[in-house]
Structure formats: structure tokens, C-alpha cells
Amino acid sequence: MKKSVLLIAICLAAFSCKNNTESTEENIQETTKEIAYASFGDEINDSDVFSAETIMEKYKNMKVGDTLTSKIKGEIKEVCSKKGCWMKVDVDGANEVMVTFKDYGFFMPLNAEGHVVLNGKAYITETSVEELKHYAEDAGKPTEEIAAITEPKLEYRFEADGVLLEE
Fold first, then answer.
1. In whole angstroms, how far apart are CA 124 and each of 42, 68, 141, 154, 159?
2. Residues 94-98: what's their mean pLDDT?
3. Residues 74, 97: Cα–Cα separation, whole Å
4. DSSP letter string over 87-98?
5. Which of 62, 78, 92, 154 has the fewest Cβ atoms within 10 angstroms?
6. C-beta of residue 86 within 8 angstroms of C-beta of residue 139
7. How many angstroms from the chain centroid is the CA of residue 20?
8. Where does the pLDDT of residue 34 fall: very low under 50, low under 70, confident under 90, or very high at 90 and above?
9. How much helix, strand and coil, in percent to the nearest 5, is found in the chain?
């Protein structure tokens, strides 16, 4: 008799644990949200992305000519209004990165907005007055603002070989 009661108790304990596991798995599946992306350029994924703090620390330690292969995430602030051949991305709420696309192999939609994951090379460059004026023209800036560009500018840059645009 004692063996029967012990066997029943063990079976009940095993079945009750199994039910808890199933409900826990259901809860995990409910809270996991799949992010949908539109992909441009090379096929990439959204894993192993540098944090905003990490990439900005690396940018601040770079010199003109240095490059760093990396993957970063940010929010689109501006896209070239003529072809989508460049965009400005806010990485940490205070710093923008000028993004171009490797070998002009792909472009972003002119109305692109939201968050992106970029894969490619981070670098710093001194952008010439002529290039700054060109970008201002592409962005549709007023002629007074374009004329006010008179000095080159050190900029955080990124050459992307692949982009994921959050849908």
C-alpha cells in the first residue's frame, strides 16, 4: 500500500511539473517578438550589433584613415532625396553618422524612416566644402544654407555593404 501511495505521489508531481513547463514555454513564446526587416545590399542579420556607447567610443578614438569593420544600429534622420544614395543615422541621440553604400551597389528608398542595422566599415573623414555643399543640395537645403558652408568638417562615416530597415 505504501508503495502505491508513493508511486501515485511521484506521478502527480511529475505531471504537475510538466504542466508548469508548458505554460512557461507558452509565456516565453508570447513575449518573444520577431522584428521584420527589409534587406538592402548584402544579406546580413541583426545579431552582434555594437552598442551605441561602444561605437561612439571607437569613433572618438579613430583618426582620419582608420577603419573598423562593425555592425551598428540607429535611427534614420535623413535620406538623399534624389536617389537614396546616402543617409544620416542617429546612433546615440547626440551623434549622427553619414552612411554611404559600398560601390553604390544599392540605395535606400527615398522615404525610408525608422531604425536600421548597418553592416560595413566605420571611419572618420574630413569632408570637403564641395562635398558638404553637394550633400546639402541633395537634401534640398535652401541656397543660403548651402552658401554658408565654407569650411571642411570632420565627420563620422560608415560605408554599408548591407542594411536592414525595420518594417
1. 23, 10, 24, 7, 11
2. 94
3. 9
4. EEEESSSS-EEE
5. 154
6. no
7. 37
8. confident
9. 35, 35, 30
